[in-house]
Write a structure and sequence with these properties.
Two copies of one chain form a homodimer. Chain A has about 190 residues and is mainly alpha-helical. Chain A is built from five helices and two strands. The first copy, chain A, has one domain: Four Helix Bundle (Hemerythrin (Met), subunit A) (Up-down Bundle). The first copy, chain A, has a two-stranded antiparallel sheet. Chain A starts with a helix and ends with a helix. At the A-B interface, α1, α4 and α5 of A face α1, α4 and α5 of B. Chains A, B: Belongs to the Casparian strip membrane proteins (CASP) family. Chains A, B: It is a multi-pass membrane protein. Chains A, B: This is CASP-like protein. Chains A, B: Homodimer and heterodimers.
Chain lengths: ~190, ~190
C-alpha cells in the first residue's frame, strides 16, 4: 500500500521539475535587455545628431564671381536631402522602440517584443546604412572630385560645408554600428534559452 | 480503492504531456530552412550579377576632343570599385553560408547554425547596402548632374556605361532585399518554438 502511494508523489515531483525547466532564472537576459535599452539611447543620439548636423549644413561664400554667388547647403544634393529625412525617420523609430525595449527588460523571457524589435531594427538598419553610404559617396566626391567625369572637388571652396557633412556621415555610421550590435544582441537573446 | 489507482495514472498522463510539449514536430521549421536555402541561392545570383555587371562596365567614346579621349569604366569611380569588391565578398560569403543553411535543414531545431547565420547575414547586409547605396548616389549624379557644384551629367555621353552601372545597382538592391528577408525568416524561426 505504501509503494502505490509513493509512486504518484515521485511522478508529481518529476512533472514539476519539467514545468520549471524552461523558466531558468536568466538574469543575463535582463542584463542584455538593459544593454539593449542603453545602446538604443546611444543610437538615438547618433541618428538625431546626424540629421541635425546635415540639416543645418549651409555655407555661403563671401564673394561673387561673374556667374553667380556660391552657396552650398544640404538642399543642393539629393543624397543629402535623403540623408536628413532618413536619419530623422530612423531616430523617430528608435524613440518609438524604447517602450518595447522596456517591455523586454520587465519580461526578459518573452520572445514577442524581441522578435518585433529585431525585425524592425533590420529594416531601419538598411535605411540608415543606405542614407549614410550615399551621403558618404557624395562627401568623398566633394573632397576628391573625379577626373574622368570632370567633376571638380568643391571642398577647397566650401570647407565648412564639407566638414559639417562629413561629421554627419560619421555620426550616421555610429548609429549603423549600434543598430548592428542591437540586432546581434537580440539574436543571441532569442537563440540561447 | 479504484479512485486511488486512477489518481496516479492521470498524473503520469499530465507529466508526459508536459515533457512532449516543447518538442513539437515543427515541420514548418524545415520548410523555413528550405526557403532560407532557396533565397540564399537567389541572393548569390543577384550579388554575383551585380559585381560582374559593374566590373565589366566600360565604354570608350568613338571620338576625341581637344582635351583627351573619353573613357569611362568602373575604375573611374571609387564608389564603383568599392561596389565590385564588396559585392564579390558578399557573394563569396553567401556561397560559404550554404553549408550552414543545409545544416539548418537537416536539424531544424538547432539554434546554433541559425544564430551564426543571422549574425553574419546582418554584417554582410550592412556591407551590401552600403556599397549599393554609394554606387546609387554616383549613378544618380551621372544621370542628373548637380547644379550647385557644377557637376555635369555624363549619361548623355556615356549611355551604355550608365545603363550597365544602373543595372548593377538594381541587382545589388535585390540582394539587399533578399538578405533582409533571410534575417527576418531566421529571427522568426529562432523566436517561435
Amino acid at each position: 500500500m505504501s509503494t502505490t502511494i509513493d509512486m504518484p508523489e515521485s511522478n508529481v515531483g518529476k512533472a514539476k521539475a519539467v514545468v520549471v525547466g524552461p523558466q531558468r532564472p536568466g538574469g543575463w537576459k535582463k542584463g542584455v535587455a538593459i544593454m539593449d535599452f542603453i545602446l538604443r539611447l546611444g543610437a538615438i543620439a547618433a541618428a538625431l545628431g546626424a540629421a541635425a548636423t546635415m540639416g543645418m549644413s549651409d555655407q555661403t561664400l563671401p564673394f561673387f564671381t561673374q556667374f553667380f554667388q556660391f552657396e552650398a547647403s544640404y538642399d543642393s544634393f539629393t543624397a543629402f536631402q535623403f540623408f536628413v529625412i532618413t536619419m530623422a525617420i530612423v531616430a523617430g523609430y528608435l524613440v518609438l522602440s524604447l517602450p518595447f525595449s522596456i517591455v523586454a527588460i520587465i519580461r526578459p523571457h518573452a520572445a514577442g517584443p524581441r522578435l518585433f524589435l529585431i525585425i524592425l531594427d533590420t529594416v531601419f538598419l538598411t535605411l540608415a546604412t543606405a542614407s549614410g553610404a550615399s551621403a558618404a559617396a557624395i562627401v568623398y566626391l566633394a573632397h576628391n572630385g573625379n577626373q574622368d567625369s570632370n567633376w571638380l572637388a568643391i571642398c577647397n571652396q566650401f570647407g565648412d560645408f564639407c566638414a559639417q557633412t562629413s561629421g554627419a556621415v560619421v555620426s550616421a555610421f555610429v548609429a549603423v554600428v549600434v543598430l548592428v550590435l542591437l540586432i546581434i544582441i537580440s539574436a543571441l537573446a532569442l537563440g540561447k534559452r
